[in-house]
Amino acid sequence: MTLLGRFDVEGEATGVALALQQPLSFWGGVDAESGRIIDPSQLALGVCLAQKILVMPSGRGSSSSSSVLAETIRRGTGPRAIVMASPDPIITAGSMVARSLYGIVCPVVVLYKAEDLPADGDCVSITVAPDGAALLTVDPLRE
Questions:
Q1: Whole-angstrom Cα distance, residue 40 to residue 107?
Q2: Beta-carbon neighbour count of residue 103 at 10 Å?
Q3: What is the pLDDT of residues 119-132, one digit of tens each?
Q4: What H or E segment, with its residue span, contains residue 56?
Q5: What are the tens digits of pLDDT across the range 32-60?
Q6: What single-letter DSSP state applies at residue 105?
Q7: Residue 28 sits in which domain range?
Q8: CATH number for position 108
Q9: Structural domain count of the chain
């Protein structure tokens, strides 16, 4: 399956989707040292974000989330990319800071069709289409 979206932070990444049903705040919701979700309201409590393609409806709150996201990217405990149904400037800022300060790219994609979010366990590859759009190739085969 092929999906289209726009980049808030351009880049390429491949990995297994970690799909959350509700938005995640990195501030108080993720342990930057381990990359594990620590928000008790998340069904994925205890799951590690490292090397995953994080898929969620949107980000959630606190402007401090951007600094926690940037720190997880720096440490290698953060996601390879983030795919959302709705844009979130705080998530975008965290990824942009990581790119600027550490030279590490964590693409941020907002899908054109919100209902097309990849499912948990899907293999996702994100590339840049010739027109600059985000092109996601999703293989529903689970890891």
A1: 26
A2: 8
A3: 999 999 999 999 99
A4: strand 52-56
A5: 999 999 999 999 999 999 999 999 999 98
A6: -
A7: 2-139
A8: 3.50.30.10
A9: 1
For residues 8 and 19, what is the distance between their CA atoms, to the nearest angstrom? Answer: 19
Q: Which amino acid is at 140?
A: P
CA 56, CA 114: separation in Å to the nearest integer? 10
* Residues annotated catalytic, as ranges: 62
Counting Cβ atoms within 10 Å, is residue 109 exposed (0-12), middle (13-18) or buried (19+)? buried
- Determine the Cα–Cα distance for residues 125 and 102; give it in Å rounded to an integer: 23
Cα gap 64→96, rounded to integer Å: 14
| Among 81, 62, 83, residue whose Cα is nearest residue 73 | 81
- How is residue 51 written in tokens? 């090397």
Alpha helices in the chain (DSSP H): 65-75, 89-102
Residue 97 to residue 107: CA distance in whole angstroms: 12
Place of tokens 């293989």: 139
The rounded distance, in Å, linking the Cα atoms of 129 and 1 is 15
Structure tokens at 137: 């190739």
- Whether the per-residue pLDDT at 31 is higher than 60: the answer is yes
Nearest alpha-carbon partner for 81 in 60, 59, 50: 50
Q: For the chain, what is the mean pLDDT?
A: 95
